[in-house]
User: What shape does this take?
Amino acid sequence: MKFGVHLLANLTPEWNSQYIQYQYLKELLEKAIADAPVMINENENDNDFNNPVVEEYFLRVDDEFFECCKKELIKINTFFAEKLAEALRRFTTLKDEIQYRKLMYGKVAPSHKTNKVGQSTDSTIHGVKQPSASKLSFVPDQFLKGNGKQRKPCKDIKNLKLAFSEYYLMLVLLQKYQLLNFTGFVKILKKHDKLLQTNRGNEWRKANIDTATFYTSTAVTELICDVERIYIDELESGDRARAMKRLRVPPLEERQSPIVTFRLGIFIGIICVLLPMVIILILVLNKSKSGIPLAWRDALHLYRSPFLIIAQIMFAGINVYGWSSAGVNHILIFEIDPRNHLTYQQLLEI
Assistant: This one.
């Protein structure tokens, strides 16, 4: 699969404009190569890259190309820094909610040393100073009911697990954002060097991309590890297998089950036999032996409502297949649970 298609299939739709504009940079290079012979032939009728005229032309191309790359890099670094800051704030809030449960229900000992009731020392997360996690003034609205009455702990735990699960998904998407953009820069700079027969792209990558914040930062990976640890220890009582089953995000690309494919093939075969038989029966049994017309149309009317449901599911399966083939990530666009959803084959099987 070409990287351009892979990028479109795996990017987060809400962040679409914040990814590297790989296709634009690729078209910029291809246009430069396509225009080069015209300009060269007008001058010395020679397309040797060592020719001074050619070399000057491609130096101008480089200036424009690397300027575009620089703008893309600034955009990506800025966006990544904003999302990382947001992730750190959300992580602090989630830790506060965990600490709140410890203080309110006393089922787990507080993880921070307390000086006085309702006070604790500040903590540092990945080099960023965070506010105290055990301040009694912090009482999330979802943990209160009526006039400050506490909800049942089991419901609180369920909501808290869901919040951690959604936050973990955000971190995975941000980590994927880092990887996709770095891969995009590597691919486009390699293409630059190949088309222009130079190594300036590789040098630019070493000087700018390999040292870029969005690539060198390990904060997201550390946050993922911290979330896993907290979820396992605090919310699943040390059961790692159960915790990771809830947290783990499978690949967004759909993988079909061989068993589902086999069953779908059988059902399609049955339909291919059934539909002609229905048509034949309608034609042959239009009248009974006594010559009285059969009321088969009335019988078909009984199946109109269930047929609409069947048709809707079938067309949904066809749509999902079309989106998957075209590289459209409908799972993220329609905010479907990436851990638990139906593939197009499962829809068609239904």
